[in-house]
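Reviewer 2 asked us to include a model.

Predict the structure of this chain.
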Amino acid sequence: MKELELKYGCNPNQKPSRIYMSDGSELPIKVLCGRPGYINFLDAFNGWQLVSELKKATGLPAATSFKHVSPAGAAVGLPLTDTLAKIYWVDDLGELSPLASAYARARGADRMSSFGDFIALSDVCDVDTARLIKREVSDGVIAPGYEPEALELLKQKKKGNYNVIQIDPDYVPAALERKEVFGITFEQGRNELNIDKDFFSDIVTENKTLTDAAKVDLAISMITLKYTQSNSVCYVKDGQAIGIGAGQQSRIHCTRLAGQKADNWWLRQCPKVMNLPFKEGIKRADRDNAIDLYIGEEYMDVLADGAWENIFTEKPDVFTREEKRAWLDQLTDVALGSDAFFPFGDNIERAHKSGVKYIAQPGGSVRDDHVIETCNKYDMVMAFTGIRLFHH
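Predicted model (structure tokens):
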């Protein structure tokens, strides 16, 4: 297949639309089910690159959950704790395969953003992963292959219209990439930067103790940022992104946005939240929405008389600001990556509130000394990479 006609481009009024190889060669993909659209393929191809690099950097199966050309979550296949299995709504599935665990983490960290995602998997999709995907609201999946039973499960989604793409794992794109904007062709060399444990050797803070686990988390952060619309920052904990701030014009707004997502991930693990008395039959998406409101500033939207009765069997107590802060203070050893330098120490102050201990950023700001000083105040470890990771 040398080209594939699409229903439309980014929007229904943008026709005609297709994907094809400019040199006339075969496309490196097969559509096994469904009819993926323009944005689906953008998510699929960016997501595939991300998980391929995560697998190469860590040696573990990897998954990502993409929405609107940025990852909502990304993770490697480490086992789930009982707590994570519960807050990701997979505690009824038993022990998951490493690949399924990776997707459960990628999907579960920010379930609000992952709703209706496009999935990328580094390895052949197994039955465990397919069972998990089958019951979530999702637009499609790309993987290097599918076990027969897994493919049959996925073909049952959306009345047989779920988008399933198989990509050739040996495909290597050309060294130069091009795109057109306003009829003008842009050309650049592909970002082939290899991110590994040696990427973080230039430690500029007083504390220079960067653990092996922290190096893995920082690598996950930076690889995720490589495929996130800039400006962007990424918080990572124990092998998974827990907060991604994408496409913000201001660095501090990225840090705040991603930090709030990381906070929400941790607040969802508080016993007060995990033990909310939901009514029987409440759908997962409705529980996600209720939890998001309950732990936020708009909690009365679910606790007001006339509202809580539709969600809970009894009215929960307010999750006070003091209770939330006390729980958040227990979050530690979080890694934070930034796709460009931090211009002010306020980013570090905000990161500290979300338990950040390890930081990787390019460096190069005229205020690097202030940023380093702020890190030292909190005994953080910060590495300068010297490499910017803008993605547009």
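The mean pLDDT is 96. The domain at 188-267+328-384 is CATH 3.40.140.20 (Cytidine Deaminase; domain 2). We have added this to the supplementary material.
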